Amino acid sequence: MNPQSNSKISLEIDGAQCEATPDDTILSVCQASGINLPTICFASNLTPANTCRICVVELEGSRALVPACSRKVSEGMTISTNSARVLTSRKMVLELLSSSVDLARADTDMQAWLTDYEADPSRHGPAAATVSQAAKLQDTLYVRDYARCVLCYKCVQACGVEAQHSFAITVANRGFDATIATEFDIPLPDSACVYCGNCIGVCPTGALIFNIEFEMRESGEWDESRQATTRTVCPYCGVGCNLEILAQDETVVRVTSPADHEVSHGHLCIKGRFGTGAAPVSAPEPN
Fold first, then answer.
1. Is residue 75 a contact partner of residue 21, using CB atoms and an 8 Å limit?
2. Residues of the chain above pLDDT 70, percent
3. For residues 154 and 162, is the Cβ–Cβ distance under 8 A?
């Protein structure tokens, strides 16, 4: 631990004085102060990847806008989270993302940001550039629908050193051709994937989705007004991972884990993720 981590420093955010420690980030101080910053690639149980650039803020003395999720605070900082420059940058990021991918299944926060920042993706072209990708249905557990992927890298992190250490997926190619892929683009069941589903747990756009949820959405059966979430303990072993089970009409449609739980930290194994009714718990077979 940093020996200075308990020392207090002062900084100014949006005209208000704040106290923090040197280990705090701008984002964590903003959250503690009740200032909500938009984030896409950030997750509290992953190392900041600095890919989406939507959490940027204006730091006095800095030539460029800085990412709040990873920038540590320092004494005397003066920060603006809602200047005209910041708002324009966030609007542009949202427009570029929503002009190139299908965000119809993105989490509710992202949908709200598109409205709040008055994003107009049509300025960048009439059609999504990657929406023509077909969804990959290669097993009975989950679907990879990369027409909805914003390349936030969180799934790659969760598959790698941050959680599972399987390294089954990575980013392949460049530019508009960039996509999340297995090694040599082999089918997922033939890869190093162990089907923990931790990639699903961190995906913000619905690009990675439970098979049953995908089928219900495609058929029009998905109805959030008939859904309820129950928090419980995984029954498969004695580790004590917590589960948040989403059910519709008493049918399990999604299983996640709270990121702030001291045991699971948001991550699960194949049994915890898929063994509670959302899918068969046995390992999938290649088609």
1. no
2. 92
3. no
Instruction: Give me the residue label for tokens 């498969």.
Output: 236
Q: In what order do the strands lie in the sheet with 78-80?
A: 16-20, 9-13, 78-80, 56-59, 66-67
CATH architecture type of domain 142-274: Single Sheet (2.20)
Q: Which two tokens stand for residue 195?
A: 């089907």
Residue 198 in tokens: 């931790």
| Contact present, 20 and 33 (Cβ < 8 Å) | no
Amino acid at position 27, single letter:
L
Q: What is the CATH number of domain 9-84?
A: 3.10.20.740
Residue 244 DSSP one-character state? E
- Asked whether residue 113 carries a pLDDT value surpassing 50, the answer given is yes
* Token pair belonging to 106: 């993105």
Measured CA to CA, the distance from residue 93 to residue 129 in angstroms comes to 15
pTM of the model: 0.86
User: How big is the chain by its Cα radius of gyration, in Å?
Assistant: 20
CA–CA dist 235, 208 (Å, integer): 25
- Torsion-angle region of residue 92: left (phi > 0), alpha (psi -120 to 50) or beta? alpha
Residue 104 or residue 86, greater confidence: 86
H-helix or E-strand spanning residue 115? helix 108-116
| Contact in structure between 94 and 112 (CB atoms under 8 Å) | no
Mean pLDDT for 112-121 is 91
Break the chain into its structural domains and give their ranges.
9-84, 89-124, 142-274
* Euclidean distance between CA atoms 135 and 49, whole angstroms: 26
pLDDT at residue 280 greater than cutoff 80: no
Gap between the Cα atoms of 204 and 280, Å rounded: 24
State the chain's mean pLDDT as an integer.
Answer: 89
Angle between helices 108-116 and 84-100 (to 10 degrees): 120
